[in-house]
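stage 2 :: seqdesign
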């Protein structure tokens, strides 16, 4: 492939005056400050990105260290959605809601590696609370209308009530039962949205029971 298509290079002969000056600053910082604590000192080489114009150090684990002001710091790329930046920039992205759930734990681990244990704990605590809130949005008992059925001249609306294993989004089904209700009651559509109503019917009555609803929260078995 022609050199003009390269994205990065470690060939110093392809560095311009600006990039060589940036490299000098990097090497001076490396000499005076040492490598960042969480940057592995294995096969460390300078590299330039032709598109961004950045000059940085990279190691055999593809970690990147770059100047952040007058400090040599790790430049991170979160593994799932690819957010990039120094730690202070990633934390700003997190505060702005720009770091997705899948990358939260990795960001917290970076904070721990940098000794920011309180910040890591706050991030994980918030993530756990949000996960619990999300899980609580899913019901253990749900119901849906499944059509009309006739028993002689009597008309019923079939409702299937499902019991789930837990309240997680991807919970498997534990079981379901079909019930039949008089369809002319205006409250039936609201009843099937009520988890407590679904639970009471599911746990109290066998499948295929027929009901006549007279009030929103009360129903009477016909057989």
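stage 2 :: out
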């Amino acid at each position: 492939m022609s050199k003009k298509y390269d994205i990065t290079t470690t060939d110093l002969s392809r560095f311009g005056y600006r990039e060589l000056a940036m490299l000098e600053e990097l090497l001076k910082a490396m000499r005076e400050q040492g490598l960042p604590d969480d940057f592995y000192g294995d096969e460390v080489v300078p590299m330039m990105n032709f598109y961004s114009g950045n000059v940085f150090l990279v190691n055999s684990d593809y970690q990147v260290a770059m100047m952040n002001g007058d400090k040599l710091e790790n430049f991170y790329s979160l593994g799932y959605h690819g957010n990039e930046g120094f730690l202070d920039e990633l934390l700003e992205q997190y505060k702005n809601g720009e770091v997705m759930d899948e990358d939260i734990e990795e960001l917290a681990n970076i904070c721990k590696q940098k000794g920011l244990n309180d910040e890591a704990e706050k991030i994980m605590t918030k993530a756990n609370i949000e996960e619990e809130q999300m899980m609580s949005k899913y019901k253990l008992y749900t119901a849906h209308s499944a059509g009309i059925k006739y028993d002689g001249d009597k008309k019923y609306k079939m409702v299937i009530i499902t019991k789930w294993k837990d309240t997680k989004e991807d919970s498997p089904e534990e079981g379901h039962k079909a019930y039949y209700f008089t369809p002319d009651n205006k409250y039936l559509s609201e009843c099937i949205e009520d988890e407590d109503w679904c639970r009471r019917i599911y746990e109290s009555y066998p499948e295929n029971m027929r009901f006549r609803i007279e009030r929103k929260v009360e129903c009477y078995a016909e057989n």
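stage 3 :: structure notes
- The helical segments are 17-33, 87-95, 101-113, 117-136, 188-191, 195-204.
- The radius of gyration is 31 Å.
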